[in-house]
Amino acid sequence: MKDFSNKVAVITGAGSGMGRYLAILLAKAGANIAACEINQSTLAETIAMLANYPVKVSSHILDIADKAAIEALPEQVITEHGCVDLVFNNAGVAVDSSFEDMPEDDWDWVFNINLQAVINSSRAFLPHLKQRPEAALINTSSIFGMIALERQSVYHTAKFAVRGFTESLVKEMKGSSVQIHCVHPGHIGTNIVTNARINKSEESANSMQRLVGKALGLGNSQEELAAFFRNNGMHASRASQIILNGVCKNRSRIMVGTDAKLMDLCQRLTPNHYEMLFPFFTLPLTLLRNKKPIKGLPVEGNVETVKA
Ligand SMILES: NC(=O)c1ccc[n+]([C@@H]2O[C@H](COP(=O)([O-])OP(=O)(O)OC[C@H]3O[C@@H](n4cnc5c(N)ncnc54)[C@H](O)[C@@H]3O)[C@@H](O)[C@H]2O)c1
To answer: Contact, 89 vs 159, CB < 8 A?
Structure first.
């Protein structure tokens, strides 16, 4: 796929982070947008930003964990836009908890959004994508679909599975008009920690905090951690641009960020002890970003939501 001009793109989780900037950068490139989100107010902000571009935009409020809502989505998009060329299964959530202390409800929440919704959406949209001369299905996994840390068992379970599912589809769709992509971001400065469920009933600090927080003198609150996470990762607009470049170059595996690439390298070099190598580059990278924040790409009407 050489460009996105006049294509119709469905994006889940379009109210924040990478989903918002995928929508904006695609609109900037001339694509029409079907923006999907559970959060009405953040989606309205994205829609306001999209109004700066001369493309057709439709807004779809839905919970992607609702199978019936996902099954109804292709028809709604086709009614609005006439066809669908690109589907970004981007929306995701996180829980920070040991497996033993994790409420089953939290497990199901992450599992249904991060994995089952990706599968249901792929099943619902693939027949429509196959009718287009060139199309793409883009599923977001994570670097946490390649390496595993403590207290992230459900996130890893979902993201490893998204990777396996998507890589299998890459092979099944070879020779068809549908490109299949699996996205593996490293640390991107979004609202994912703000929206995460952190198991506060446990005494120990959570894993993300242990990785970087103590060295930087962070407190214990979710708000502090979320603000730190958002302010010190790669800007979501840059991550989204890398994803779109990967789609244009038909890269089935799209790695986003130096940290993701280095973590992947570590797990190849030392499959049993890779996490011991991470502080040698995650901390310097974080300190570097802290010292010299990397600005977002220029887009029209930026109204960043600051939640914490
Ligand atoms: N931020 C990172 O460092 C990072 C790293 C690796 C992978 N990822 C993945 O990237 C994707 C995008 O996350 P982000 O970092 O931009 O987070 P974000 O929290 O900024 O955005 C996620 C969006 O998904 C929406 N969403 C959540 N549950 C939903 C549901 N049930 N139905 C519809 N929409 C829903 C949220 O409201 C939010 O707008 C996720 O799949 C995440 O797991 C993020």
So the answer is: no
Span 200-254, pLDDT tens digits: 776 545 555 555 566 566 667 899 999 989 988 999 999 999 999 999 999 999 9
CATH code of the domain in which 66 resides: 3.40.50.720
The total of structural domains in the chain comes to 1
Asked whether residue 3 is domain-assigned, the answer is no
Question: Is 242 inside a domain boundary?
Answer: yes
Atom number in ligand 1 closest to CA 189 = 1
Does residue 192 have its Cβ closer than 6 Å to ligand 1? yes
Tell me, yes or no, whether 20 lies in a domain: yes
Domain of 258, in residue numbers: 8-291
Write 235-238 long-range contacts (CB < 8 A, 24+).
235/188, 235/189, 235/294, 235/295, 235/296, 235/297, 236/17, 236/18, 236/20, 236/21, 236/188, 236/189, 236/190, 236/296, 237/21, 237/24, 237/25, 237/296, 237/297, 237/299, 238/294, 238/296, 238/297
Each residue of 40-60: pLDDT tens digit? 999 999 999 999 999 999 999
Spacing, Cα 87 to ligand 1 middle (Å):
15
Q: Is the pTM of this model over 0.90?
A: yes
> 17 in ligand 1 pocket by Cβ < 6 Å?
yes
